[in-house]
Write a structure and sequence with these properties.
- Helix content is 74%, strand content 0%.
- The chain is mainly α.
- It has one domain.
- The mean pLDDT is 81.
- The chain crosses the membrane at residues 21-39, 69-89, 116-139, 151-178, 190-208, 282-304.
Length: 312
């Protein structure tokens, strides 16, 4: 992959210097800081100061009319990935610079790999910076220093956020390869984001109702099958995978997703799980999110390698 480093550094410089990146970063930083500030105030008002894992609550708690930091990542993360990737290839073609780059001693795969890695590094730096600021707010407002396990859980949550955004970024890059116009790739990416983030809930509910109709006389077993099918269909959405991963990592008492029978709940003591046990709870979701990101980028890679590029 000759030329990977020059492409990576050039793209990284362009990302940090672009106006659209500064705008979306400003929005996420402001909303993230305000949500964490109001969450810390809410935790203080609710007298949660003696609870364990208080630091992790900053990422999931909401207050002051603002949603949680997790909500902002779940909502704005795909938009950030789409913004960074929707014109990665067709934008270069429109400007006539792609054929010029390929005329240099740079391998074709170095271009797409460098663009993807630079965008991924940009997202990682931005999310890490916001999480560090949130940690500072927690220490200043709550006087609580996170312990080692909380730090590791926060790092795993950070990795999950990066994988989540990487999926949407890979998808946007794929559309930028398939479509000639940047506007088309952007609209297609946004349409798919709306479908997987919103309409999938309605579709999952309708399918579950058709397969396992619910009535007032329905047995607990039928209700469990209905909810299990609905949950399985919802997991086709990366947003749902991120929510489940975050729930288990940031709330150590979470040990199962989906319906549970009363016999299973009888005598159950909700003690916090260890870090390893929490990871095992959401390991399938983690693997699914990794697989979705890798497969989407692999398809983008193959599509770009087979793409015919001509000078305009």
């Amino acid at each position: 992959m000759g030329g990977l480093l020059p492409v990576f550094l050039k793209e990284l410089t362009d990302q940090f210097g672009s106006k659209r990146f500064m705008l979306i970063t400003l929005i996420i930083v402001i909303t993230g800081l305000f949500s964490s500030y109001t969450a810390s105030e809410a935790l203080k008002e609710q007298q949660f100061l003696n609870e364990e894992y208080l630091f992790l609550g900053l990422f999931t708690s909401s207050g002051g009319g603002l949603p949680s930091f997790l909500f902002f990542i779940s909502f704005f993360g795909p938009l950030l990935g789409i913004i960074l990737g929707f014109d990665a290839i067709n934008g270069e073609r429109t400007r006539g610079t792609l054929s010029l780059i390929l005329s240099q001693p740079i391998y074709r795969d170095a271009i797409i790999n460098g663009k993807f890695l630079a965008s991924l590094a940009t997202v990682a730096i931005m999310i890490a910076s916001i999480m560090v600021m949130i940690a500072g707010i927690s220490i200043a407002k709550l006087g609580v220093v996170p312990n080692g396990q909380e730090v590791v859980r926060a790092i795993l949550f950070f990795i999950a956020c990066i994988l989540y955004i990487a999926f949407w970024m890979s998808l946007a890059i794929l559309f930028s390869i398939i479509f000639e116009k940047s506007s088309t790739s952007a609209l297609t990416s946004i349409a798919l984001w709306i479908f997987l983030s919103f309409f999938v809930y309605m579709i999952a509910g309708v399918v579950a109702d058709e397969v396992y109709p619910i009535t007032q006389q329905s047995t607990p077993e039928l209700l469990a099958k209905h909810e299990s099918l609905r949950t399985m269909l919802l997991r086709f959405s990366p947003a749902v995978l991120l929510e489940e991963i975050s729930a288990a990592l940031l709330n150590p008492t979470v040990r199962v997703f989906g319906p549970m029978f009363e016999t299973q709940l009888k005598g159950l003591i909700l003690t916090p799980l260890s870090l390893g046990q929490s990871v095992l709870v959401v390991w399938p979701q983690f693997v699914a999110l990794i697989a979705a990101s890798v497969i989407c980028f692999a398809v983008s890679y193959l599509a770009f390698m087979r793409k015919e590029i001509r000078s305009i």
